[in-house]
């Protein structure tokens, strides 16, 4: 009955048919249900991206009275919360990067691995809470202790995943499966995965004796991967060719997954998660806070719902403003990664920095909605929005520049230097940094019209994106015609010279 | 320079190389940047799934004092909010289904379509707010009016997307591209897309005259697709073969995308989004509400942070409990869809119903955390949790049963009736319904131990999942041996009969 359909190639549990068949054959052989990890990874990416951006909520919900100037104490509180947000974001992205690496080694999963991964996710989603404890009680060791314990547990679970994977080698990456020195790989991967947890364990121990040292150790966890890479890079630069050759050799004995490029799909999935949750954060608030109380409407507004709702006008404006900005920045990110074939680690870092600022956008727009009327802080709020937008978009620009530096490995042929698509991409990426910088300085100069400038900016940008292609084409044609004119001039001059030169050389 | 790399097959903007090349060729020809829609759809799925589940937050945040019995008024309020949640969930899933259908017709996108889609998403994410206005002011036409206007705008944007797609036929599905009667397809798709908005437009008009009619019209929007399908089904059953043939014919002139199966990838992506946001909803609350105030800790707990935190114990327990339940239900869903090759519309509907109950889980667990101490409502809270878990898991079970009814089209060969994988899947799906039902009745009988039973259930289930494979294997072997024993008995009996029968027939 099933025989005629068994050969149908239809979209099955294995996205890559060869791999699925391979896993299938082994499954029949070993009697365990092996699966591709694609959906598990997508789910993990969604969880991690939500958790990374969650800590912006306490920042955004810090209540500031509209007639109160941003005082010292409020600023202090805001700064602490922003620091917590940034630290959480970076720590979660470090955990995410480790997770990416882990599942580049283990390519197929089974039920045990899926459950272990879920346990790991559960502890990771608890991290933001330990961080906010640390921020509220910087002098109490318990916060650091709890955080470190969580990190150690995460590390141990991931180590168990690695050991389980190497115990069932059919789950591993093909390249490791066929290699002879699996033990070497195992030790190397365990070293990478347990590096952070060991530092955290030390931090937990020291938290009872000398707290500042614990903080230094935790800071090390975040910058360690980049630091070690930077040191290697410096060494290569200083010691020159010999070392580079050696590094090349070590890259060869390791395989692709231990070298630079991150998985492009997972970078995209994580970014999509962050953009999606950030885009919807404001509507969560609006749904909860901005539905008027029926009794209040009856008493205060004489039953006119429309009048009551008009009170919330600035909130709606802020929502649409933030959604448009985030949507368009996603659009730029999407266009950018269409041209990218591989993401290097530096591009990954820049992407994460860009995302960290994206996470700040709802805060910025909440500020603009709260200060919209009769407030002293209107200009500050708008300027904060401009600054956040500027940094979010300039880091996207930096991703593009970094990609261009290694364009052979990272970019599609048709997006490299000089093509029309290249110019268009450049214009897309430059739009937001230019406009936000322009708006920032305009609000400094014309401080009375700051709100008008801001709203104008929001309305103009989407249309600018639509018209960008036409604009780029016109300017390219202009440049070309100017170039050809000047070239013709040069040719004419050369001809003139050529006409003159014989007499010159003769004389 | 780019020539030697141009042929590299690497993972590019086109997931399907042939399609990408096709798009690429056209791009060069037409000078527009055509892209595959994969990432746009993933982002849309993430946004829609978050928005669908968001309205559970107002339900979960309804404050109930622990010593207050669930009174009439609170129950009324809760019921209204739950109704809003369910309505929002269903409306957003209807919008999602329309979106899936739309992008089955339009397979490639360009910048204009991406921006139009983002505009569409922006309006959709605003829908929950209009719904909560409707719930708070059921007698005021403005809420319905606003909702209907949003729905009409969404319909118009989608219609523009369709028209744009048919104006640039290289963006369309291959099957439509090569077909001769594109106009017929265009009209058909426009009819499907504009059906809902037209009903909403009527609702908006009637909202000023006779509000109940508007509500009926809005209800129609949700059930219309299922209703029309049900009527067709009934007709087929009553009128029999003749009609079925006709339907078959019409299915042939339409193509696969207009017939039943939903895109499996998008069902998975949407479900993942819902599971991910629901799993993290409780930690959002914990991060905001359960960080003690430093001053309070100093005054009330004599500076002991640990003591202050122990107050929140039940909240942590609720968080881990809800994460584990949602994680395991995701795990079951994941296992289920590994065996599914195509999702029929009925399976999609059952999946959405299951997800709607999943969305209720954080609420249930919040109830258990709030009532954990000195409360009259402990048992009710636990029973609500059990009921929600039961329905969420029984609908998953129903997906499996429905899939089995059409197993040739919907399931992988190795998961069909009778295989070992089949028995294992069955056990996985049956675990949660059985346990939650068992816990429900146990709490009725042993009401003093309800909390203990509930916690025991939470701890036991993950281990049950790990041990399930072993358990299934043992029971299968047992059944087999029993079967073979009884078969041997039957054989023996038959032999005896055979020995006896000649004499019997003789006598």
Question: Which secondary structure elements does this structure contain, and how are they paired or packed?
Answer:
The structure is a homodimer of 507-residue chains.
Chain A: H1 3-6, H2 17-30, E1 35-36, H3 38-54, H4 56-60, H5 72-105, E2 108-109, H6 111-136, H7 141-167, H8 174-178, H9 182-206, H10 211-239, H11 241-253, H12 264-289, H13 294-300, H14 305-310, H15 313-339, H16 345-370, H17 378-405, H18 407-410, H19 420-445, H20 450-506
Antiparallel strand pairs in A: 1-2
Helix pairs in contact in A: 3-5, 3-6, 3-12, 5-6, 6-7, 7-9, 9-10, 10-11, 12-15, 12-16, 15-16, 15-17, 15-19, 15-20, 16-17, 17-19, 19-20
Describe the structure.
The structure is a homodimer of 507-residue chains. The first copy, chain A, is mainly alpha-helical. Chain A folds into 2 domains: 34-230; 264-487, no CATH class. The first copy, chain A, contains 20 helices and 2 strands. The first copy, chain A, has helices at 3-6, 17-30, 38-54, 56-60, 72-105, 111-136, 141-167, 174-178, 182-206, 211-239, 241-253, 264-289, 294-300, 305-310, 313-339, 345-370, 378-405, 407-410, 420-445, 450-506; strands at residues 35-36, 108-109. In chain A, strands 1-2 form a two-stranded antiparallel sheet. In chain A, helix 15 packs antiparallel against helix 16 and helix 15 (313-339) runs parallel beside helix 20. Chain A is globular. The model of chain A is unreliable at 1-32, 242-259 and 503-507 (pLDDT under 50).
